[in-house]
From TrEMBL:
One of its GO terms (biological process) is L-histidine biosynthetic process. Residues 22-346 form the Aminotransferase class I/classII large domain. This is Aminotransferase. The keyword Lipid biosynthesis does not apply. It is an enzyme of class 2 (transferase). Belongs to the class-II pyridoxal-phosphate-dependent aminotransferase family. Histidinol-phosphate aminotransferase subfamily. Belongs to the class-I pyridoxal-phosphate-dependent aminotransferase family. SUPFAM superfamilies: PLP-dependent transferases (SSF53383). It comes from the Bacteria. Keywords: Amino-acid biosynthesis, Aminotransferase, Histidine biosynthesis, Pyridoxal phosphate, Transferase. GO terms for molecular function: histidinol-phosphate transaminase activity; pyridoxal phosphate binding. Pathway: Amino-acid biosynthesis; L-histidine biosynthesis; L-histidine from 5-phospho-alpha-D-ribose 1-diphosphate: step 7/9. PANTHER family: HISTIDINOL-PHOSPHATE AMINOTRANSFERASE, HISTIDINOL-PHOSPHATE AMINOTRANSFERASE 2.
């Protein structure tokens, strides 16, 4: 099997295996689907939104996000998903850049644009209790920027906001530029309370990415934003094309701005399903489960390879994310999204059979 750069390549799986329907555990999307108020708003106004140009300044989205996140409108820059914003920001970062790894593969790709950066990897400890924010701060010495996810993808590890900001404060006071990707923060146990933005707001040398792609199951809509200092966001805006946020994406923002209670109930459900999945994985022989904070789980197979597991699961119509292409990991590691109870049971049963086959 050829490894995809990202999870969610269902079309590639269809072409490879000739199977139309798949259980996709490779992409970390909330399995509850699009919230009804968002879907209704998109459907009701679809004709108008498709036949009119969207606002090139994204004023309505900036207003809504600012209200939700505690930011002024000029501290918010929306875009066509976090990937677009990250791609635009990469060349603007000063070198050297500290890159905690393993991490989202597009971090390195964005830093390689326009001649690249001096990238200094920082290995994130996988075993409990996980990486230390003090060690991270020590590793940042001599670096002018840090680019990292919190929670991290693919490890699902979350630095506690107070601890992370406290450890990095001396480095920030010295002028270091911190770039935090919080795309999964609303799917952690504490939700938006785990965001570092309230502790960092007002610093000109901070950028925080956020998204609704995962929590509201809207990966096809492409909507994310950056929170940060006005001057830095103005430079980033110059790197983006006009109309980066579509009319339907703007409409979705108007709807999800009224979903606070819905988000809380969705998190509660995900936490329950995550516990069921991690308990089941922990009971499988030869499987090491790394404690997750978000809606996905990193596992290591001690008696077989991720390639073998992914191959056998694909034969059963199940997609998973092999992690051999993440720096610091190898072909023993696989990332699994948290799905609903029925899907999680199917995965666990298929994994049990797969592991038995691997021992024959």
């Amino acid at each position: 099997m050829t490894a995809a750069r990202h999870g969610g390549d269902v079309e590639g799986a269809r072409r490879t295996w000739g199977r139309e329907r798949w259980l996709d555990f490779s992409s970390n999307i909330c399995p509850l689907g699009v919230p009804r108020p968002v879907a209704d708003a998109l459907t009701e106004h679809l004709s108008d939104d498709l036949t009119s140009y969207p606002d090139p300044q994204c004023r309505r989205v900036r207003e809504i996000v600012g209200r939700l996140c505690g930011a002024s409108e000029d501290e918010v820059l929306p875009g066509c998903g976090v990937s677009q914003l990250l791609w635009a920001l990469g060349p603007l970062l000063p070198s050297p850049v500290l890159l905690p790894e393993p991490s989202f593969v597009d971090y390195r790709r964005s830093l390689a644009r326009r001649g690249g950066h001096d990238v200094r990897p920082f290995h994130l400890k996988l075993e409990s209790p996980g990486p230390s924010p003090d060690d991270l701060a020590e590793g940042a010495a001599g670096c002018r920027a840090i680019l990292m996810g919190n929670p991290n993808n693919p490890t699902s590890f979350l630095f506690q906001p107070n601890e992370l900001v406290s450890a990095l404060t001396p480095w920030l006071d010295g002028g270091g530029l911190l770039v935090l990707d919080e795309s999964f923060v609303t799917l952690t146990d504490g939700g938006a309370a785990n965001s570092c933005w309230p502790l960092l707001r007002g610093r000109p040398n901070v950028v925080v990415f956020q998204s609704v792609t995962k929590s509201l199951a809207l990966p096809g809509l492409r909507l994310g934003w950056v929170l940060g200092g006005k001057e830095l966001l103005a430079k980033l805006a110059d790197e983006l094309p006009d109309w980066s946020v579509s009319g339907p994406a703007t409409r979705a923002a108007e709807a999800f701005g009224r979903l606070d209670e819905y988000a809380a109930s969705r998190r509660k459900w995900l936490i329950e399903q995550r516990k069921y999945l991690t308990d089941g994985l922990s009971n499988l022989p030869g499987v090491t489960v790394f404690p997750p904070s978000a809606n996905f789980v990193l596992v290591r197979f001690e008696r077989t390879t991720g390639t073998f597991v992914a191959q056998k699961l694909a034969e059963r119509g199940i997609l998973v994310r092999r992690c051999a292409d993440f720096p610091g990991l190898d072909d023993r590691y696989v990332r699994l999204a948290v799905k609903d109870g029925t899907a999680n049971r199917q995965l666990l049963a298929a994994l049990e059979e797969t592991l038995k086959e691997g021992e024959r």
